[in-house]
From TrEMBL:
<feature type="active site" description="Schiff-base intermediate with acetaldehyde">
    <location>
        <position position="163"/>
    </location>
</feature>
<dbReference type="Pfam" id="PF01791">
    <property type="entry name" value="DeoC"/>
</dbReference>
<protein>
    <recommendedName>
        <fullName>Deoxyribose-phosphate aldolase</fullName>
        <ecNumber>4.1.2.4</ecNumber>
    </recommendedName>
</protein>
<dbReference type="InterPro" id="IPR028581">
    <property type="entry name" value="DeoC_typeI"/>
</dbReference>
<comment type="pathway">
    <text>Carbohydrate degradation; 2-deoxy-D-ribose 1-phosphate degradation; D-glyceraldehyde 3-phosphate and acetaldehyde from 2-deoxy-alpha-D-ribose 1-phosphate: step 2/2.</text>
</comment>
<keyword id="KW-0963">Cytoplasm</keyword>
<comment type="similarity">
    <text>Belongs to the DeoC/FbaB aldolase family. DeoC type 1 subfamily.</text>
</comment>
<feature type="active site" description="Proton donor/acceptor">
    <location>
        <position position="99"/>
    </location>
</feature>
<dbReference type="InterPro" id="IPR011343">
    <property type="entry name" value="DeoC"/>
</dbReference>
<dbReference type="GO" id="GO:0004139">
    <property type="term" value="F:deoxyribose-phosphate aldolase activity"/>
</dbReference>
<dbReference type="InterPro" id="IPR013785">
    <property type="entry name" value="Aldolase_TIM"/>
</dbReference>
<keyword id="KW-0704">Schiff base</keyword>
<comment type="function">
    <text>Catalyzes a reversible aldol reaction between acetaldehyde and D-glyceraldehyde 3-phosphate to generate 2-deoxy-D-ribose 5-phosphate.</text>
</comment>
<dbReference type="InterPro" id="IPR002915">
    <property type="entry name" value="DeoC/FbaB/LacD_aldolase"/>
</dbReference>
<keyword id="KW-0456">Lyase</keyword>
<feature type="active site" description="Proton donor/acceptor">
    <location>
        <position position="196"/>
    </location>
</feature>
Length: 233
């Protein structure tokens, strides 16, 4: 496998979901950062549901696809509401991936069967429209055993990715996608599901390290994308 330091900007961009998720963004800012995600050859632009029409307009005929967040950032809606949200977005037929926030209070409570059951119906709704699903655990709120069990829930639910963080957690130290947490997820998943790191990936060194570890995707904040790609000179 090619070392990350030897990859082109386009190859590195394929690891990135450019995060365009701040709730206070103006439409002009949303358009600016979606365009930057396209220009940086990012795999997707990750947007809030209210930005889907803009994202569809701007990514049309480009190699950058649309990722939408669902029940973001808390994951505390009812299962029925989560499924309805997911179906509403995916039935557009232009959503490449959907990032659903797991009920991490349930994970912390050890309610793993309930977590799996909820995720399974959401995944089924998305897969019916050809949309892949990433499951966000908010790992800063979890201990190692809870992270490992959450991975098993997502695998059992037939999700496509496990993901660390929303980037919007409060009341906890926001470590995000540390090498240690990513390694725990990799050791537990053993290639059965893809892994996305998000939160705290702000340096080129960290970004390249995670690629060399074997990560599949990373959520990068709009300010950090040019930094991790080495384009901020």
């Amino acid at each position: 496998m090619k070392k990350a330091s030897e990859m082109t900007v386009e190859e590195l961009g394929a690891y990135i979901d450019q995060s365009v998720l701040k709730p206070d963004f103006t439409e002009a800012e949303i358009r600016q950062y979606i365009q930057e995600g396209i220009d940086y050859h990012c795999a997707t632009v990750c947007v809030n549901p209210s930005s889907l029409d803009i994202a569809a307009e701007m990514t049309k005929d480009t190699d950058t696809k649309i990722c939408v967040v669902c029940d973001f950032p808390f994951g505390t809606s009812t299962t029925a509401s989560k499924v309805l949200q997911a179906e509403t977005y995916c039935q557009r037929e232009d959503i490449y991936e959907l990032d659903i926030v797991a009920n991490f209070g349930w994970i912390r409570s050890g309610k793993y069967d309930e977590v799996t059951k909820e995720l399974r119906v959401i995944v089924e709704a998305c897969h019916a429209h050809g949309t892949a699903v990433k499951v966000i655990f908010e790992t800063d709120t979890l201990n190692e055993e809870q992270i490992r069990q959450a991975c098993e829930c997502a695998i059992a639910a037939n999700a496509d990715f496990v993901k660390t963080s929303t980037g919007f957690i409060t009341g906890y130290e926001g470590k995000g996608a540390t090498n240690e947490v990513i390694q725990i997820m990799m050791d537990q998943c053993k290639g059965r599901i893809k892994i996305k790191g998000s939160g705290g990936i702000r340096t080129r060194e960290h970004f390249l390290e995670l690629i060399d570890m074997g990560i599949d995707r990373m959520g990068i904040g709009f300010k950090s994308t040019p930094v991790v790609l080495g384009l901020d000179k």
